[in-house]
Specification:
- It is a single chain.
- With 175 residues, the protein is an alpha+beta fold.
- It has 2 domains: 39 residues; 116 residues, no CATH class.
- It is built from 3 helices and 4 strands, in the order αββααββ.
- It has a 4-stranded antiparallel beta sheet.
- Strand 1 and strand 2 form a beta hairpin.
- The longest helix is centred in the first third of the chain and has 23 residues.
- The N and C termini lie far apart (83 Å).
- Keywords: Membrane, Transmembrane, Transmembrane helix.
Amino acid sequence: MDTSQGNQGLSSRSKALLVVGLIAFFAVDNYYMWVERDNFPFTSHGLFNVLFTARTNLLRMVVHDDQGGSVTVDSGRVIPIEWYRAVGLAENVFVLEEDSRRKEQVARLLLERVNSEPWYAFDETYSSVRPPPGGRFVGLDVVYLRFDLDQYRDGQPPKPLQEERVFSYRLPGAP
């Protein structure tokens, strides 16, 4: 190769290989999008390429305080990690895991954490749920809320058709 003429840019062969490579990349990316699978670096955006059916389930947590109140929250408000990872972690531990002792240990740790060291929102992490003033959380339920999205009306909060409790834990000595 004669370098005396300076930089000539990409050769025609390099350009052709680049075009073929880009076409192949986007073909694979498009394939994985349509089959709704992730395969990094192809279609690494599975969070956004899912079509929900009209009936869907949402995993939520219900925390109970020592004053008799309870609040239903996203799992990211109880588990101190990014909200989109919290749902999968909650499902793996509280739904798919069969060891009840392990479930209770995790529930106790989560309740201790939200009671003693609540956290603030940062980036993709929700702020923790907070007990009422002078109170503390004493119980945790994991529930599936079943929704029919065909019944949703714009501007109205969606109402669950059914609530199924899949796990329940109370701190020792709690009512």
